[in-house]
Amino acid sequence: MKERKKITLYEIAQLAGTSKSTVSRVLMNQAGVSPETRRKIEQIMRESGYHPNQMARGLAGGRTGMIAVVTPGIFSGYYAEILKGVDVVASQHDVHVISSFARGEDDYPDMIDRFSQPGQVDGMILVAPRMKVFKQRAPRTIVPIVLVGSYAPDNGWDRMDRVVLNNAGAMNELLDHVRQQGCRRLLHLTGLANVYDFAERRRAFEEYLLLHPTLQGTVLSGGETRAQAREALDRHLDEQPESFDAVIACNDDMAMGALQALRGRGIQTPEDVVVTGCDDEPAAEILGLTTLHMPMVELGEEATRLLFERRAQKQISPVARQSIVQMALVVRSTSMRKPAVPV
Amino acid sequence: MKERKKITLYEIAQLAGTSKSTVSRVLMNQAGVSPETRRKIEQIMRESGYHPNQMARGLAGGRTGMIAVVTPGIFSGYYAEILKGVDVVASQHDVHVISSFARGEDDYPDMIDRFSQPGQVDGMILVAPRMKVFKQRAPRTIVPIVLVGSYAPDNGWDRMDRVVLNNAGAMNELLDHVRQQGCRRLLHLTGLANVYDFAERRRAFEEYLLLHPTLQGTVLSGGETRAQAREALDRHLDEQPESFDAVIACNDDMAMGALQALRGRGIQTPEDVVVTGCDDEPAAEILGLTTLHMPMVELGEEATRLLFERRAQKQISPVARQSIVQMALVVRSTSMRKPAVPV
DNA sequence: CTGAAAGCGCTTACAG
DNA sequence: CTGAAAGCGCTTACAG
Q: Residues of CATH 3.40.50.2300 domain(s) within chain A?
């Protein structure tokens, strides 16, 4: 039944015995079309399997029907879940999602530049951009931008909507728990310094130590990948064995590297050393890793909601919105010293 | 230095003291422009921060500069890696990647239909489409399609390029290894029957049994998710305890579910039961899960290469290409009975 | 409620 | 090697 020839809005108008204008109105869901005409046009569109040419719509109407999600090149598996959340909301608006991986941190500004030009996308979501991006003034673009898990300095970036995590609060809760497990010498395994969330978590860790003088704390830089985290901890164990009784990693991936390092030396978890992560990646559950749960799909959805709200505004608003997504402590076996719960 | 007013090809032509045609030629990388003129235009484009309007290019030239990747709604984390591979190759061609998650298997045909209309994308990659998609004849579309990890029945789908895995060969290697570990009663934990790769692996499992009469084999359906796999194995253990000494799961996720079920009953791995997966997801390494390694980024890259080769062809070619990606056995602790190797 | 016309910013023959 | 003109398929005032 479906036409194979490419069919245009003009053809639909012909078949309906009306004009392009009217067909366009029903396509745009605009008022001012008689119910009867509308019904007829809708039926013809359906029967003919008509899909409007996106490129033409974009050019004529100034709306591309696309948004871009830019993620760092190196990623934890959870970026896929954020992407899925974005897709859920975007598809409700009949908008496609362009996914781009930044190649190095220098690539970020270029991508922003490119996407903020007219005729590219209707908006962009920047996931965990590296701090370096913010060295330059924020582009004064008509294309709305939403930041996810990100810094927002006052050289213009603070005008943008953003979705952030309650890093400090969640970290506090986590450290309270670790302390209750009897740990006193805490090692914070941090990641790249230019990742905003990592910096926040580190700061929360250090502030917690100030408030709890009975605790001893160290910060160890674990590099970028799981393997690097493992190596870093290995070296640390060579130099200062038994110097800590808890590893607080800045994310699950690094926590897993830590687990490997400990296991390799026969150090028991959680008996000798408690280990915690952050993110609650799929693998965390399996490993019994205590972590902070981040609702990743939600994160993507919320960012996209902000984007569409912004897009819907007629004029530029002076209000920047910020959504704070709560992470929740998930206690599992890597930190559970007291009662042995069956898995 | 950067212009904020939107700048068009026409402006570039003005600045260069030439015509739109000539500017378009350098944009399209076409021959027939004096080196001097080309250099000048390129410089002006760079200085003005010009990016051509994609919508206009798409409408005028018939090339959208986008390709779509459609993935199933429920996904293992590894789809993100495929997406990354796609992005790597696509960006070399200055093409953007639209990522779409199919909402249920009925959504697949609709998406294919929509994307294959003109003015949408220049090509599409279908990742692990459910078998149901192939019930209907393949669309006779000008938009090239590449199938990844997929069936290709002869009702038109066999005209398409595809990237597949050496499921049977790899499964054989895996089963040889399991047999060498002393296992004789094998339980195959399979996933949704409508996933091509799962069906292939199951077939390979059954054929292996036919060739090795000393082995005993069972196939257990593990549902769709890790949790379901765990439950399925739990029920099986209730009904027929100690009926197997190896679990051969159709992917890592289900293998992890199996590990949970076994652990919950105090059954030792690999001493009592050997467990294997497939895919080599990030979590597999941590868990010490024996699996078949799938080079996921490569898979995405190869699919995209096929797509661009097809796009470059002037006329429709009668040749359908098939790339077979080799999976390799990765032996880890869940199947290593003989020598205890240090992790 | 409806239609004719202009125009979005490019590419692509075509003519020179 | 270069330019003028047509046209891609829509949306958007504008006029009725």
A: 66-165+296-325, 167-294+329-335
